Amino acid sequence: MADADLDALIRQLAKQQNKALTAAVKKRRDRAVALAAKAKDAESRQRQRQLAKDILEIGTATVKRVQMSADNAAYSYARSVRQAIDAAAAKKAEASTRPAKKAAKKSTKKVAKVAKKAKG
Fold first, then answer.
1. Position 1 in a domain
2. What percent of the chain has a predicted confidence (pLDDT) above 70?
């Protein structure tokens, strides 16, 4: 688990959370439907049925929002890691070109000193 990518782990946990949320929403809706079936008058039956529909609609929207947030977090993490890797690679490439420039400067200075001694 320590070697797992965190973005995949975020998505996996969100999937588990969404399953639990969906089950809770369905359980709540079923309870409202059961209360509607037990209702004695038509008005309370209709009210319980409407409540069951609203519970399902609001719960489904909530599950979608949670999933979207998890996807955004996972994508953001993955993007940040890619940018960090690219920055490290650029820094390494820059560092590897610096010694060559310093060596070139040193060799030109040595050549200039040798030329100066030759003249004088």
1. no
2. 78
